[in-house]
Design a protein that fits this description.
It is a single chain. The protein has one helix at 52-62; strands at 2-10, 15-23, 66-72, 76-84. The radius of gyration is 15 Å and the shape is globular. By secondary structure, the chain is mainly beta.
Length: 93
């Protein structure tokens, strides 16, 4: 089971859209968290290509955004995808 939360974020440092993707799975062990965005890194053996999170990270970065995670082994993982938006740019131009 998981959930997706989408909302605006505005604070002193940044302004934009924050998307949070959460699950209540087994979590990601701390020792591999820095590797999960590497191309072809997978913990699924032959069931995964290791490109999913790599591609998500690339797409987010190409839009000027960032992706971070918080994971508690045995409790689940939350991914935070942030897409910046310029203040006052409501015209869509």
């Amino acid at each position: 089971e998981g959930r997706i939360v989408i909302g605006a974020q505005e604070d002193a440092d940044r302004y934009g859209v924050l998307i949070i993707v959460q699950d209540n799975g087994c979590g990601i062990p701390p020792e591999i968290q820095d590797k999960i965005f590497d191309p072809f890194f997978s913990t699924k053996g032959t069931k995964g290509s290791g490109l999913g999170l790599y591609l998500v990270n690339e797409i987010v970065a190409r839009h000027g955004g960032s992706i971070t995670l918080k994971s508690d082994p045995g409790k689940g993982t939350s991914f935070y995808l942030f897409f910046p938006h310029k203040r006052g740019d409501e015209s869509g131009e």
